[in-house]
Give the backbone structure.
Amino acid sequence: MENHFTDRMNQDRAEIEHYLTCAFAAEPRYARLQDAMEYSLLAGGKRIRPILVLETCRLCGGDIQAALPFAGAVEMIHTYSLIHDDLPAMDNDDLRRGRPTNHVVYGEATAILAGDALLTAAFEQLTKAELPAEQIVEAVRCLSQLAGSAGMVGGQALDMAGESRTLSREELELLQRLKTGALISASAELGCIAAGGSFEQRAQVRTYAQALGQAFQIRDDMLDVISSREELGKPVGSDQAKDKSTFASALGLETCAVLVEQLTRHGIEALKDFEDAGFHIWLAKSLAQRIR
């Protein structure tokens, strides 16, 4: 069964890669802007968020082909956030997904513009979905809310403000619920919206995704301590070097491991009313145990 889900994930990823590769192919090329956009957008990665869009659409009885523009939009938002997070004014990282970060290759100005362009393009992608207008409007509302100041960007602001001071567990949970969890939640909700899912289904996949997002971040904090630069494809120990509070530093690795397990169980339980949530259950367990 695990091989079946791995194959399905790889098929989803291939669909997403093709969609992203074609996204800007017909556009005019201005200076090095599109090159910089595609440098980060097509750099690979796990593609967890767009895969979650497609598989949640499937879970709620929809056609994943119709959800591809929503999946592409989420990955563009995620990629822009990584480009900006890596900038010298933010985390000042020089490695992402195993290669130099965008600003190292293209310069800070072009990296900022590439992020801006990907953010804007994401909402254009939503409008390309062959779905009823009311579902597209709801998708725009959902993604703009969870990716903006009340979601991901707000979390990044809290992250920057929290440097060089010790955050409480409550502060950490809020920060990561916004910075990491909000876009993961948006991914699941967009999949449900694309499928025309019910209010109850959307609430259930939201609960699942929120638990998944928190477990994902706690595991990420753990890996920053126990993994290596080669395994992760990005710097390790950077949070400690910047004196950032993390779940690992605040709670310790053993407590973090227990929390990841508890959150994973909570997320899985939220999907108990779905007829076949096998992929989502497998995904949650896989992410909880990941080593990179």
Summary: The chain has one domain: 2-289.
